[in-house]
Design a protein that fits this description.
By secondary structure, this protein is of the alpha/beta class. It is built from eleven helices and 29 strands. It has a seven-stranded antiparallel sheet. Strand 26 (432-433) and strand 27 form a beta hairpin. Helix 9 (457-478) packs antiparallel against helix 10 (480-490) and helix 10 runs antiparallel to helix 11. The longest helix is centred in the last third of the chain and has 22 residues, at 457-478.
């Protein structure tokens, strides 16, 4: 039986050659993880077993890699393209193609189909630093192969999510639990799956769980109030699972980019800056404030108001923010923003990366004044820009959070945790959107497995990047020049980054070495 090992920052494909080492070498901080991919010479059922040579090694999880179809490439400026010549300078290969992105959890010792696997050492925060050696064995049809594994655990410790300096929020589609799993909304099965999706967000180091907004209640055709029962239930489950923060769901949106007005999600014709708009917002926020107060959430809440406020609607956004502050005093307002003229209306600024770069001096001035600054990525800008697209190098999904450390961003936001709305997530990763296609994987970073969400390699890369970001921020305190050099090597800007998994992991090893100190 032939096999090879591949790092966890490089894509594997069903047609990848067996070209690589036959042993695995991992480097890990305490409280973090390290992983590798294993590729066999052919498929068929096999059994994998793993054991450390001496007791005390970190737990190791096993996943089967599942190929996913990428139907179009990321376009140079927006959405997708079938013209490979237009994008060949930055994508990994021409669409359509299949790539191993989905991770199906499985157990050591059970018969599972090959040929590709992902093995992950989950290092406890209290793990003793040192070198751990073990063996992975694979048995298939009377054949047996052995892969030596070494894991160097460093003294550096990644703080638990919410206890460090870096935050994360991924928008969540509650309706897709029913749509993708066939579980009736509100049923016991739906709630069980909901808990698993929340757990997955927290495993990816999300610090904020976005709650659903209140549902409008009407009487005789008129708005009578709002039902916050689902938001309350989700909030309680999230806190039970250990979420550091909750974030109230969006209340309003603009209709066009140049529209100076905002409209509530329950009435797309009602201007919120008008008299009736105020009374309806008053009703919404006063009822929501009572729910927050009854549950004792006030010190663990943030509030999203309206996604992507623009230069043209800044005045209306400030009105919306003022009403929110009247009823939710002390609750920080957190929103993805497309403008700099929102001062006083937003507490946690989340500019898209290209918006940040276009307005760097103003955002830097806000940072220097003490304003909290995150960043976000989405389908736009496309092209070479760092994102989570499945036809970009896998290093990008991790390296963009090295850029977060470089720019001293306080957090990262992405809208697409589980928002896939197409008919075949396994063969058409480009999700339909307003008559076009989103870049592959932009709408989702998990897959609907038979018993809950399956992680993706991009999921693992994003949580790895969040771990790296925390460590880089620690190194910035003792060796700012060294930290700067490392981020320059991995991701210097939204379009300047390494496509080599080996380069990224070598930089990470030097990061861990730079933080070496006696275990405490």
């Amino acid at each position: 039986m032939d096999f090879c090992v591949c790092d966890d920052c490089t894509w594997l494909y069903p047609d990848s050659p067996l070209a690589g080492p036959r042993q695995a070498r991992l480097d890990a901080p305490r409280g973090g993880h390290a992983a590798f991919q294993l590729l066999l010479d052919r498929g068929g059922e096999c059994r994998l077993a793993f054991a450390w040579n001496a007791p005390g090694g970190p737990p190791v999880r096993l996943y089967r890699l599942v190929p996913v179809g990428v139907n179009e490439n990321t376009a140079p400026t927006l959405m997708t393209t079938a013209d490979f010549a237009a994008c060949r300078d930055y994508v990994t290969r021409a669409a359509p193609f299949e790539v191993y992105d989905a991770l199906a959890p499985c157990a050591f010792g059970e018969a599972v189909p090959g040929p590709a696997f992902y093995l992950c050492a989950e290092v406890p925060s209290g793990q003793a630093p040192g070198l751990y050696s073990g063996e992975l064995t694979v048995e298939r049809g009377g054949e047996r192969a052995v892969c030596p594994v070494e894991c160097r655990v460093y003294a550096a410790r990644v703080p638990a999510a919410g206890e460090g300096v870096f935050s994360m929020l991924n928008f969540f589609c509650y309706e897709n639990i029913a749509a993708q799993h066939g579980a009736a909304g509100g049923s016991g099965e739906w709630r069980r799956l909901l808990r698993r999706y929340i757990r997955a967000q927290l495993d990816m180091r999300c610090t904020h769980i976005l709650l659903p907004p209140g549902r409008p209640v009407t009487e005789n055709g008129r708005l009578a109030g709002f039902d916050f029962s689902l938001a309350q239930e989700v909030g309680r489950i999230a806190l039970e699972e250990g979420a550091p923060w909750l974030c109230g769901g969006h209340v309003a949106h603009w209709r066009e980019w140049t529209d100076p007005e905002y409209y509530p999600f329950w009435d797309g014709e009602l201007p919120l800056s008008g008299e009736e708009g105020y009374f309806q917002l008053r009703m919404y926020f006063s009822q929501w404030a009572r729910v927050i107060g009854k549950n004792g959430w006030h010190k663990r809440m943030a509030q999203a108001l309206a996604d992507e406020p623009q230069v043209h609607n800044a005045a209306a956004y400030r009105i919306l923010a003022a009403v929110c502050r009247k009823f939710l005093p002390g609750v920080p307002i957190l929103d993805a923003v497309e403008a700099t003229n929102l001062g006083g209306g937003v507490d946690v600024w989340v500019p898209k990366l290209d918006t940040w770069e276009k307005n760097r001096s103003t955002f830097r001035r806000l940072q220097a004044a003490g304003e909290e600054m995150w960043f976000y990525t989405c389908a736009f800008p496309a092209g070479r820009a760092v994102n989570r697209s499945m036809d970009l190098p896998l290093t990008v999904s991790r390296g963009l959070l090295w850029l977060a450390a470089r720019e001293k961003f306080g957090g990262y936001l992405h809208w697409g945790f589980n928002y896939y709305t197409g008919t075949d997530i396994w063969h058409s990763a480009c999700c339909p959107h307003k008559g076009a296609l989103l870049p592959a994987g932009d709408a989702h970073i998990v897959y609907p497995g038979p018993d809950g969400p399956w992680r993706s390699l991009r999921f693992e890369a994003q949580r790895g990047g969040a771990e790296d970001c925390e460590l880089l921020r620690l190194l910035q305190q003792t060796d700012p020049g060294g930290a700067q050099a490392l981020t320059e090597e991995v991701c210097a800007s939204s379009t300047r980054y390494t496509a080599s998994g080996g380069v990224l992991l070598a930089a990470r090893r030097r990061l861990l070495e730079g933080l070496e100190q006696p275990a405490g």
